[in-house]
Amino acid sequence: METPLLQRHCPRNILVFRALQLGDMLCAVPALRALRAACGDARISLVGLPWMRAFAARYPRYLDDFIPFPGFPGLPEQTPDIAAIPGFLAELQARRFDLAIQLHGDGRLSNPLVALFDAGRNAGFSPGEAAAAEGAFLPYPAQGHELRRLLALTDFLGAPRQGEHLEYPLLAAEKEELARSGLAAGLEAGGYLCLHPGARSAARRWPAGCFAAVGNALQAATGLPLVITGSEAEAGLAAEVQRGLQTPARNAAAPISAGALAALLAGARLVVCNDTGVAHLCAALRLPSVTLFRASAPERWAALDRDLHRPVWAPPGHHADDGLAEVLREARALLAKPPSAGWR
């Protein structure tokens, strides 16, 4: 059996390409942690969507640099800035990376792009059983949790796992931002419930009326105040949930950073959300949560700790009540558990 790449030679200048959204990036943290442990002296640069500059800065133990990706024809995550692509490629080529790791997907579109970075060697996933004559490529796993698919690649490259747990360190500046916003004013840690009705894809959103019904039932059972979270663009959706409530609730769908939102979520006794970035934040922050799966696969995206994070499969038409009874059952089970030590 051939010795894995990183055990034969640990490069000093590594590029990692993964240009996706928050939940996808959080799933990559264990793989980044393994890579850093295997290549402690290497300079590791992340190429990703422009919003990810703040994400990369959150993990200085694993990442040394960030390079914004202008998009590329065929990749759907952002509209490509065609005029910026030549300069982007020239910058990467000039930096002469020893190794470029494609951690983005199965490689059908991303491998030809990463080849243009002109690194000394390429590695990553390949579609199906396809293999590359140059580099170190693993057939993309067709099944399994996203986090474990990514760890399968770092295993293959020779970077032993350093655990499967997610991380999302909260920064002092984000807590200060939350305080300035006033969104958490008067709330006590562990003393409120969060409803997060938004998701980037409309197909992933549980109906607003169902969120309201859950909020009404849980507030009546616990007496805890309700906070409806979301981005500024989701303020209307939060207001729709608010109108269905029988008790006043705080609409916290506001123009704050993801880190400030995470700081707000961190004090919740329970979060009910769709399968979106917030669900992965709950896993990283170890917040009790119930996650609705409408159009995505729980076996790939649900948090691994099913004791603390309860997935509910509720595609349209699957339940007569749209999954409401199951969500309430899981929520009540979580609320019956002792609260987090961090809240006491």
UniProtKB/TrEMBL annotation:
Gene3D superfamilies: Glycogen Phosphorylase B
Keywords: Glycosyltransferase, Transferase
Assigned GO CC terms: cytosol
Biological-process GO terms, alphabetical: lipopolysaccharide core region biosynthetic process
Source organism superkingdom: Bacteria
UniProt cross-references to Pfam families, sorted A to Z: Glyco_transf_9
Gene Ontology terms for molecular function: ADP-heptose-lipopolysaccharide heptosyltransferase activity
Name this protein carries in UniProt: ADP-heptose:LPS heptosyltransferase
Organism from which the protein derives: Azoarcus indigens
Organism placement in taxonomy: Bacteria, Pseudomonadati, Pseudomonadota, Betaproteobacteria, Rhodocyclales
